[in-house]
Queue: 2 jobs
Job 1
Amino acid sequence: MLKAVNRVLLGLLGLGLFALGGGVLLGGLDLQRRWDFGMPDWWPFRGPDDVVLGAEGRTRWRDEGWWWPSVIAALAVLLALLLWWLLAQRRHRLDRVLVKTEDGAAVRLDGRTLEDVIEEEAQALDGVSRAHVRLTGKRTAPSARVRLLLEPHADPARTLGQLSRETLAHARDSAGLDRLPSKVRLREARHRAQRTA
């Protein structure tokens, strides 16, 4: 649903900007006169000397008492809508994972529990200081986003291999999933330099 809303909004916004930019370009290059065609009477850009917003348009409502509160309210609503849209883009954590059993029934597995199990097993790996796991995607096809904080002595390639072959494979098999695509982000823990006397 969110993808469809995004595509429609971005399509409408792009179409509007394309039409506005094309109209300004037509007027700025004086293509109406050169190619001998007319624009509707309400169209503001007639030639290269026209401006997008003239002096009369800029100052018409300035002295009215309702103008500035209306502008501020409209901008506040626009900002709230844009913030809502931005927050809606974040991938939400899965609360449930649907697991198919051998008899064909579907069982709901708590997503947070599966995340906690993966985190605990990942933190038990040699060289991992801390792990954070978030399940995203669909309930029937989850994916994992894993962040590992590695200790200074850790071998990133070996840790990543163990995580993939053991931890994530255990989670995938225990949840009865065909696959568990994962994105892993590794970061090294900062440590103070040791001084010798």
Job 2
Amino acid sequence: MTEPTGSTLTDALAEARRKYRNWGRWGPDDALGTLNYIDDGKRSAAVAVARAGRVFSLALEFNRDGPRSGSRGRGNPIHTMLDSGLEAAAGAQGLPHGFGDADDVVFMPLRAGTHWDGLGHVYDKGFAWNGRRCEDVVTGAGDQVTGVERQAASFVTRGVLLDVGRAVGDGELPDGFVITEHHLRTTIAAQGPSSAIDRGDIVLVRTGQLARCRRLAGWGGYTTGAAPGLSFGVLGWLHGSEIAAVATDTFTVEVRPHEFDPPCVLPLHQIAIPNIGLFLGEMFDTDALAADCAADGVYEFLLVAAGLPITGGVGAPVNPIAIK
């Protein structure tokens, strides 16, 4: 397979650590990583980007028909009613004066649907974000240092959609398509000034794979098979552009199969999360937003994408809202 940098994966990882590691950049106690690029001025300017008032949810529905395969115990959400209209109609709730209610519960892995990977989710040679030993960060009680509750108010900024699926394909990139920095820059040039990337932006990359799953009425290999995604070689662009986060409409952000010979597991994640401190968003539904952007030629928006503040979480389910 083509290896984007270095003669082996070991060489490529070592080079990437040397070039892109942000440890200590925001102090020894940092729990925000690249979200530090979003400041008050950035948020204020992002609010001004929302002009038309059109709103788009970028989340998949959380239900039993989601994409999760169930491997390693990570299945789809299970939603169960504790009380329903049936009990209320039967007068079985024991509540006075005709009052009735419904109540429910959900059980799910935190990355069962649209989510942010937390800073404690991936390690590199035993180290978590900012050079901490992974066993000192995440224990059986959860992430004690960089849990997703610590970023609960941070995912508010200017969002930019890079519709690579439309710009360099026919709307849907084929599975296994390697998105390079050249493809990202080509997309920005094709889309025009509103898609120029600035510090503190959250970049959404649309590949069209999710649209293909919908068109074929099934998840197929969405979680386990080949997928379009970012090249390992894009890490330099992700680091140098000083974006706050990147998300895609795929299951793992990076291309599958990977660009290195096996054994190889998520090499872009291995550098991006524990070394750069970059947040990765997975399974973002950008199709409706992309259609609107293509129609009016505006690819920037206010993005409000705070995950659930689950104490100690290493993943954050989210309903991202784009406001144009």
